[in-house]
Here is the input.
Amino acid sequence: MEGEMGKHKRFDKDFKLSAVKMITEGGHKASEVARGLDIHPNMLYSWKRKYADNGEKAFPGKGHLTEIAALRKRLREAEMERDILKKAVGIFSKTTENGSDS
Here is the structure.
């Protein structure tokens, strides 16, 4: 079994959806499907839970790319807002120093 340590099988979205639908729509038992696909039943239960929570969007790809992309977008927007506020503070503080606050 040398070299087997640390290797994980990767399954694409279509495979996961098909496996889950065999249980949810096909009426098969999860243990039978898992055995037939040579995967651990707990993995299948996890996929089923994700599918129940998110539907067709359950398996976006490698990791949580959609969630990370959304968080990065929110971060960029927050940074832009912060920069605008910093500039505004700088502008207003200059006008009050020059005595033009009236």
Residues 11-59 form one domain. The chain has a mean pLDDT of 83. The CA atoms of residues 30 and 45 lie 7 Å apart.
